[in-house]
Design brief:
By secondary structure, the chain is an alpha/beta fold. It is built from twelve helices and 19 strands. Strand 2 and strand 3 form a beta hairpin.
Length: about 375
Amino acid sequence: MKAQLYRGDLHYAGVTLHTAASGAVTALDTLWLRLEDQGVIGTGEVRLNIGYLHGYSESQVLDNLLTMLAGWNWQQSAQTLLAAVHAPGNALLSPSRMVLDMALHDLLARQQNLSVAAWLGAPHRPASWPTNQTLFWGSEAQMLDQAWRYVERGFTQLKLRTGVADFATDLARLHALRQRFGEQIELAIDVNGQWSVAQAHKAFPQLRALALSYIEQPLSPAHDDQLPELYDYGIPVMLDESLNSEAAISRLVDAKGALWGHLKLVKLGGIAPTLAAAKQLQAAGVPFMVGQMNEGHAATAAALQLCRLVQPDFAELYGADGLTDDPVSGLDYRHGRVAVNDSPGLGVQFDAARATFLQEFSDARY
């Protein structure tokens, strides 16, 4: 087997990424891993500049991945390597695990001439899924214009990023969205853990009239123990940043549906652990979303393949919409859905000439 690592910056046309957690983001610093085994190639992807989510710097993730790749026995089978990725006690960080897991799933599915969803056991289903769209921080005029363009394209599940300005500003923007679109849209907010419990107690009663689908991560993960104070307001609370381990998923199950979950491959370490978490939540009757960060086509396709398998209550798959320079292609956004060709693996293609080559690893046969 041979592995090649690439890096590049991805940019959007007409969208400025700005949340309370991230600040302004000008580009997506991205790694791609290509695995080749007997002429079959699998691709994985991970975004590096998301330390605000998991706490790891770009250099930490890259160094961790390089160390693991340099130490691997490349004569092992892809199935053996996938088991090693998720072996207890290894030194892999969750984003490093994600890119390896994704590339191996893509490779293994392509070797069987199946989509990743089918390889994991999904029955034949359309290779598309409805997705929400996020309204990032900007002027109110920019927000309303962006929302209008999404709705015109059929994307009527909208999530407003809040917590950058004061609550009065956020509340006014939510009312402006309701006034403009009425019940034509499903509306949610993402606080990115910026409220104290006292602020949440003031905010929740004022949000009832807006018929929000959910409030995402109102408190920081450090204050998860205070979340039960918010249950009686009757607005669903969805956790995101809090769900970064098997133990966190178990705590969510223990809430018995009072809390919902936003599952992301980069937090949990790839397709396999995210699938396990989704099955655990389904068995417990806990509503959940399969989502992502702002990421490229490969990572978005991986989340889409998982949606085809587990059919979540919500999906956040907007990450590749509007990217202008992604070396990976294959996704199509229209009519409120993201679609991929029902072809083997993730269903996307990687053009190495559009990325920066970093390093190669291989066994003696290459």
